Amino acid sequence: MMRNVITLTEAAAARIRELVENADQPVSGLRISVKNGGCAGMSYKLDYVEAPNAADDVVEDKGVKVFVDAAAVLFLLGTELDFQTSKLQSGFVFNNPNQTSACGCGESVALTPADSALLKQ
Length: 121
Hints:
This protein is mainly beta. It has two helices and nine strands, in the order βαββββαββββ.
């Protein structure tokens, strides 16, 4: 049995549901990917999904769909996606066991890919 690449907290699922329901046009969910850049090497990217990509890993959790870009799967394996709000900011928080460091400003991270065998556990 394949395990989900990521899991969602109730707060993350509620925020994704709100974003999908209030999008300017019909969307299926959010796509999570990683891109090269920033002082630590990589950053997380979230986009609306209008038309799912067949290569995406689809995670259905707590009533919402999250599409994980195929190139990001091993970098995100085991990640818990949360949504946190404080007095000064709010946003998604990636609790990622594959993250080895982050830059001081929090805009980029260093990620090491997980062993692909972990997907089958």
